Structures are given as C-alpha cells and as structure tokens.
C-alpha cells in the first residue's frame, strides 16, 4: 500500500529543537530538513526586549524575596512602570561601575601618599587641585615640581574625558 507523503513545517525554540528533531528521527520519518531562520532587525529588537524583560522579571522576583527590599515601599502602578524603574537603575549601575573603573585607574596613577599630602594641604577635591598653580601645589603638599605637574596632567586628562 502506498500512502501519499505529507509535509509538515515546525517552528521551534532553539533550546527545544535538538530534542524534538531527535524524537522525530527516532520515529523513522524519511526526510527531515532543518533550516535556520535569519531574523530581521525588528525581530532582533523584539528578541532583545524579551530577554531584557525576562532578566528584569527574574531580578525583581529575586529582589522581592531578599532582605534588602523595603517592606513599606509603595508598589508600582503597572509592569511598565516597574520595568522603567529597573532599566533606569541598571543604567545608573552601569554608569557608576564605569566611574569606579575610571577612578580606580586614576588612583593607580597617583600614589596614595600624594593624595594624602594634597588633602593635608587643603586640596580635598580634584577641582581644588586644578584651581592652583603647579608651584603652589608643590609648595603646599611638599612635592617635587615634577610630581605636582604629573598630578595636574592626570587630573586634567580625567576631566577632559
């Protein structure tokens, strides 16, 4: 008996496709063709948004059960507002992380004892150091002129970025 062959098309999630294809092959089907899918820019953006929302939900669920959650805090009106707050917090976190990395690099370039000498000389901020002439910085902080020039160059380069 000859039976007409049927054709079926399936759209699968990437994480499920290997298992599904293995089960189909196990049933003894004659021809299985697996083709990839090239998403459009709009599809890529949608997939990125979905992944970002998934991460936000997972983070909020974890945070909801943590000790750092404020129990008396007012809830968000809807999910969009909660996600907007989450995205804003992630952006602030990324900016602060970049600032910490930049400041750590700057701290590595200036010796700790030089920073302490500048503080003792009344220069508590980088801007207060930059407001003074190099000679006065060297005199106040008891530094060599070359050291004071190096500090000023590092701080100027930091503020230009």
Structure description:
- It contains seven helices and no strands.
- The model has no long low-confidence stretch (mean pLDDT 80).
- The chain is elongated, with a radius of gyration of 30 Å.
- The chain has 161 residues and is an all-alpha fold.
- The protein has helices at residues 14-26, 41-64, 79-109, 112-120, 126-130, 134-141, 145-160.
Give the secondary structure arrangement, pairings included.
Elements: H1 14-26, H2 41-64, H3 79-109, H4 112-120, H5 126-130, H6 134-141, H7 145-160
Helix pairs in contact: 6-7
Key attributes of the depicted protein:
161 residues, mainly alpha, 7 helices, 66% helix, 0% strand
Which of globular, elongated, flat, extended, rod-shaped describes the shape? elongated
Mean pLDDT: 80
Task: Specify the biggest β-sheet.
Answer: none
Distance separating the two termini: 79 Å
> What is the radius of gyration computed over CA atoms, rounded to a whole number of angstroms?
30 Å
Q: What percentage of the residues does DSSP assign to strands (E)?
A: under 5%
| Oligomerization status of the protein chains | single chain
* Number of distinct beta strands: 0
Number of helices: 7
What level of helicity do the residues show?
Answer: 55-70%
Spell out the helices and strands N to C.
Answer: HHHHHHH
Instruction: Catalogue the unreliable spans.
Output: none
């Amino acid at each position: 008996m000859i039976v007409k062959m049927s054709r079926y098309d399936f759209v699968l999630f990437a994480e499920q496709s290997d298992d599904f294809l293995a089960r189909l092959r196990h049933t003894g089907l004659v021809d299985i063709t697996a083709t990839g899918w090239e998403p459009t820019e709009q599809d890529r953006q949608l997939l990125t948004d979905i992944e970002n929302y998934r991460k936000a939900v997972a983070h909020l669920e974890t945070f909801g059960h943590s000790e750092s959650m404020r129990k008396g805090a007012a809830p968000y009106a809807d999910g969009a507002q909660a996600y907007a707050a989450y995205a804003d917090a992630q952006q602030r976190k990324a900016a602060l992380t970049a600032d910490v990395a930049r400041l750590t690099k700057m701290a590595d370039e200036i010796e700790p004892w030089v920073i302490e000498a500048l503080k003792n000389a009344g220069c508590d901020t980088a801007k207060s150091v930059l407001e003074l002439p190099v000679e006065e910085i060297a005199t106040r902080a008891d530094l060599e002129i070359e050291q004071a020039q190096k500090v000023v160059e590092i701080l100027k380069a930091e503020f230009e970025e």
